[in-house]
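A common beginner's mistake is to predict each chain separately and then try to dock the pieces by hand. The better habit, illustrated here, is to supply every component at once so that their relative placement is modeled jointly.
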Amino acid sequence: MTMPFYVAPEQFMKDKADFARKNIARGRPLVATVYEGGVLICSENPSRSLHKVSEIYDRIAFGGVGKYNEFDQLRRAGVQHADVKGYQFSRDDVDARSLANLYAQYMGAVFTHEMKPLEVEILVAEVGARPGEDQMFHILYDGTVVDEDRFTVLGGEAEAIAGRLSRAFRPEWSLGEALAASVDALGGGERKVSAHELEVAVLDRGNGRRAFRRVLEEEVAQLLAGQQSLGTAGSGPEPADEAQGQAGAVDEARPDGGPDSG
Amino acid sequence: MTLPMFPPGQGPGPDFAEVLRRLGLGPFRTPPAAVPLNLPEVPHGTTICAVRYADGVVMAGDRRATAGSAIAHRTMEKVHPADSHSGVALAGAAGQAMEMVRLFQLQLEHYEKVEGQALSLEGKANQLSQMVRSNLAMALQGFVVVPLFAGYDLRQRRGRIYTYDFTGGRYEETDYQAEGSGGRDARTTIKLGYREDMPRDEAVELCVRALWQAADEDSATGGPDAVRGIYPTVATITARGFERASEAEVKAAFERVIASLNVAPHPAGGDQP
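With all components supplied together, the output reads:
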């Protein structure tokens, strides 16, 4: 009779975590940030039909990075859960927090009990009735939940992108400003991400019952062009930085402390 | 609650009614074999109609629900948006009918979210047909639901109307249809006033006229209630989507209809024995 090799639990967990992290980091990142009208979700995605960002419910959106079939299965389960809950109780009883908890439990259970952890990071965002009430939950491959109220970054190079975005971030900025800053953060200094390579969606407070709206390529290009012309008029190298400089009074109200996403 | 996870290949797909069945929450379960004869009267909704016009379809319904000879509700809504470009109106047992509307709306939205695109208009019509059929056991006990489905077909760029029988049979109408206890009177009125490619205000007025005539002949159909300010529901479905006509517009249409009626005043005193 052969004995199985002994592997220390620490090593086993570490191997699984490394495996998941490595594969998630290979994927293209996704950025979500609040703006005056709601929540903006922006990601690099060359595909027009395989979405990373989708609608879950009236005020809730989903974003995923990593392995497509895995986060798409999570997305479907989220839609099913939300629709069943809204049917059983009321539409007002469907909230992002409880959905994020369910995702966390499921992903945590898979990480602990299955051979292979899920190679995904997901975002559950909910737009509130007023600015400041928006919520974003960033859920990692092992079920860790991070709660954000300004912005969050999923996927590869998350820390570098979050650093760039935190320098540009301004509370209650416009959709155009938020989008331009997000795109700059995604691309870094050296690379310009074009509208064609982006998948952008918003949870728009003013969009009626179903807040989710896809921002199509044409509108993305327009918004980015609008910000660029503003930026060159002020002779600033980065439009987002320029906007931050001009709004010093607002900026002082910003709570200190960097984001802990990534 | 837990996250509904299904093994690959065994999931319910984009079918919300199937999700509910899997979770034991399906609303249209088999009723008891025999319904007792002394069952109390349940509310019934009555007259609804739909007319095709130049830009799409007008749907209208009165607001009355009756339980036997009593008026159960004066303000029931029978015309509902099914999704952005279609509407559903219901006549029949009110409880079943309202549940069917709610489930139908969710079914379309669920499909749209899961699949990333909306069903075709014919797909939606077939979905409703399946729901009516799943109510067959209840229909045989007397709880019949007869929906009317209309929408703007974004692929063919025209309005389309579908009617159903209580077994789930689905029939596409060419121009107009009316259902419910006053449906026959409403249908005749529309038949006499219909012409192809009417403008919007004419189509709205024709629906309102049909409902007035139905209310005039059928006690279960409610007419305009000027005392309480209750007017029938009228909605249009066009390329711009489902839009409810304002109460003021419906009221004005009623006033035009009433002014045009050629009804001789009844002689004072009435019939003497």
